[in-house]
Amino acid sequence: MADSEISMTLPSVTRRKLLAGAAITTMALPCHNNSTATAGKLSNNPAFDPALSLWHEWKDAFGNTAELCHKQQRLETKLIGRVGFPCADVYLPDEDVTVTVSWLGDIEELFGDDPALADIRARAEADLAAHQARWDEADAEIGYSATKREEQEASDREQDVFDTLTHTPATSLAGVAGKLDAILREGESWEDCSDFPWPQVRSVLVDVVRIGQTLSPNAFMPGSDRKGPYQRRHRDGCCFRVWKAPEGS
Fold it and tell me: Whole-angstrom distance between the N-terminal and C-terminal Cα of the chain?
């Protein structure tokens, strides 16, 4: 598929929260004359860092949610291909047109309480109900709605761990890197998102990883394995890429 346009929206409240979180993370690194020794102490104790432990827990939850998101999307595509979205075609004789309705509100808007259209309205409601029943039957067989509920529960769990992580003080550079890595994965919607503050946050993460690996070459640093785009899910209030299939596809 081709990239048609990029829509970037970051509400001021969300932006302030992220900037405040970045400021808190920066403040977690003490600043004094013996900065190298301080950084060394921070980088050498990742095993005792609750933030790093939470990052591992969050990363597993993040991956699980992404997997379920992709699964429910595949099942939805399969369900639509089998029975189509519930709808009904309604012929309006006065206008000599046929319209498609997809929920009872459409029917109410079209016909209201006009007694002259009662028969047409009844047929439309019956056709829509019949299509909905076919959808529900296929849904139960395919498991789309069950997977969607499972995804929502996983997403809620992921968000709880993320909130806990971002409010937990890091005691190592690895923990700081983990918090920045989680913010990037949750906030930006593609790897090279250019909207503020994502390039700046990526730059800070690179700095923290570099310093941590210099001080402790064998220590694992979250974000050091970032070789390509992360798995992405749409997040309201964040920049996101809009895709459109090529014409004729």
Answer: 9
Cα 209 to Cα 206: distance, rounded to the nearest angstrom: 5
**Separation CA 212–CA 36 (nearest Å):** 11
Q: How many CB atoms lie within 10 A of CB 37?
A: 10
Contacts of 71 (CB under 8 A, 6+ apart): 147, 151
Neighbouring C-beta atoms of residue 166, cutoff 10 Å:
19
Rounded CA-CA distance 174/59 in Å is: 14
CA atoms of 177 and 151, how far apart (whole Å): 27
pTM of the model: 0.69
Q: Report the distance separating Cα 42 and Cα 45, nearest Å.
A: 6
Backbone angles phi, psi at 97, to 5 degrees: -135, 155
Task: Find out whether 243 and 4 touch, Cβ atoms under 8 Å.
Answer: yes
pLDDT tens per residue, range 1-59: 444 333 334 443 443 344 444 434 443 444 334 444 444 555 555 568 999 999 999 99
Amino acid letter, 100: T
Give the CA distances from residue 103 to residues 8, 61, 146, 166, in Å, rounded to whole numbers and listed in that order.
31, 35, 22, 42
